[in-house]
């Protein structure tokens, strides 16, 4: 029986469904600092800093990010103040409130009715998609 459970767990990890693949910032939790992961980050609390996630960033209705986000896929239902870069897909839910800059591919950008966005948006595959470094973020320019 132990061997079977270990085999199932190993298969799940190989398939990308491992236990460590999702990091959760729960309600009432406040993180000050940068977060970097190869997996997914779900924010239901508050983060002040940059989030870099290899797979996805999910911001729940009560979640708030004061800083930049860089990921493949993003589903935003909460509040972001900063630059949001989604390389593959971006979904702004009706409860989302974004203030800053968004970069995402036009064919995979979903904006629900009621979503709030104040800032600049760059759609398409052209241009720079990486988040600028903090040292020159205020005066940086894109190619």
TrEMBL record:
Region feature Disordered, mapped onto this chain: 120-143
Organism superkingdom: Bacteria
UniProt family annotation: Belongs to the bactofilin family.
PANTHER family in alphabetical order: HYPOTHETICAL CYTOSOLIC PROTEIN, POLYMER-FORMING CYTOSKELETAL PROTEIN
Protein name according to UniProt: Cytoskeletal protein CcmA (Bactofilin family)
